From TrEMBL:
Biological source species: Agathobaculum faecis
Boundaries of every Cobalamin biosynthesis central region domain copy: 133-210
Protein name: Cobalamin biosynthesis protein
InterPro entries named in the record: CbiG_hydrolase, CbiG_mid, CbiG_N, CobE/GbiG_C, CobE/GbiG_C_sf, GbiG_N_sf
Domain CobE/GbiG C-terminal: 214-331
One GO term (biological process): cobalamin biosynthetic process
Length: 341
């Protein structure tokens, strides 16, 4: 679950923060009422901001915008890394996204909070103000990783000037493309929806990588995380799949307490799915059988079947590759790039 911290500075602000938390059910919310909670009276706002900028997806300041700006300014890392930061006046009349309006979702969250509070969302990003397609907002909404966020300005700048922006996609494209977006144009700026982050179809190419790939892993008991990581890295490299495309990992349920596997998930921020031998046997597809594996765990293949099972019946991108007692396979769930004009 995503993590949010809400900090307020007055009793009225504390009430507004409490109301806001109710509109964020998809976040684990922590509230810091600095003038109400006496335990916070001697704490440092700068230290709070420093920690929150690292471990939060959302920070909401209920108070003056200047306080929020001064608190977070020393810890800014860039639009690809900063969390969503929102400021709300203590009466709950205005909701202003300050940071990560698109990639971090601050604009959308501000709209949600404003709707719940009966407030006015103050959106200042140019593409939103002029109702121009925002490629980073689209990427976030459709589960794509923005590999090179420094290229966003070229795509957005061209659209704001009314110029045509190109798009290239290795995935099927559905719907009507937004104004000034073209699949055929040889534009100066554009975005590529692909696993190939080296391709440069435009002078200024923004790479969007859909997060579709699940890693299937089988390993010997007691395999250290370093070996699992090396085997996964080798499989991704062989398949030409960037790390950003990976959205999960899977194995058989007898491995649910395997320390190296669990640590691999934690270190890479990946959820781990574990399936029974019966569930894996029922997974359909052309898999690489192993009599040894079947005798050991009751199913003829773990990594390929687990990867496909995790994708809900997707296609194998990389068959079983074995290295130092670790077997790895990659599967991709079905996906289409959808636009609505």
């Amino acid at each position: 679950m995503k993590h949010a911290k809400l900090v307020s500075f007055t009793a009225a602000g504390a009430q507004t923060a409490a109301r806001c938390a109710a509109f964020l059910p998809d976040f684990r919310c922590e509230r810091y009422a600095r003038t109400v909670d006496l335990s916070l009276s001697g704490t440092s706002l700068a230290r709070f901001a420093q920690q929150a900028m690292v471990d939060c997806d959302l920070i909401v300041f209920v108070g003056a915008a200047g306080i929020a700006v001064r608190a977070v300014a020393p810890y800014l890392m860039g639009k690809a890394y900063d969390p969503a930061v929102i400021v709300i006046d203590e009466a709950g009349r205005f909701v202003i996204p300050l940071l990560s309006g698109h990639l971090g979702g601050a604009n959308a969250i501000a709209e949600r909070l404003a709707d719940g509070l009966g407030a006015q969302a103050v959106i200042t990003t140019a593409t939103d103000g002029r109702e121009v397609f925002a490629v980073d907002t689209w990427a976030r909404a459709h589960g794509c990783v923005v590999v090179d966020p420094q290229q966003i300005k070229y795509v957005s700048g061209a659209l704001l000037r009314g110029e045509t922006v190109g798009v290239r996609s290795d995935f099927p494209v559905d719907g009507r493309l937004p104004a000034h977006i073209s699949l055929q144009a040889d534009a100066e700026s554009g975005f590529a929806i692909s696993y190939d982050t080296k391709a440069a179809p435009f002078a200024h190419t923004l790479h969007l990588v859909p997060r579709l790939v699940h890693i299937g892993i089988g390993c010997r008991r007691g395999t250290p995380v370093e070996r699992i990581e090396a085997a996964v890295r080798a499989a991704l490299g062989a398949a030409g799949v960037p790390r950003g495309a990976v959205c999960g990992a899977a194995s058989i349920d007898v491995k649910r307490d395997e320390p190296g596997l669990l640590l691999f998930g934690v270190q890479n921020g990946l959820s781990l799915a574990f399936f029974s031998a019966e569930k894996l046997r029922r997974t359909t597809g052309d898999f690489t059988p192993s009599a040894f594996v079947e005798q050991a765990v009751g199913v003829d293949n773990v990594c390929e079947r687990a990867a496909v099972c995790a994708t809900g019946g997707g296609r194998l991108l990389c068959r079983k590759t074995a290295r130092d007692g670790v077997a790895v396979a990659l599967a991709e769930r079905s996906w289409r790039a959808r636009f609505d004009g």
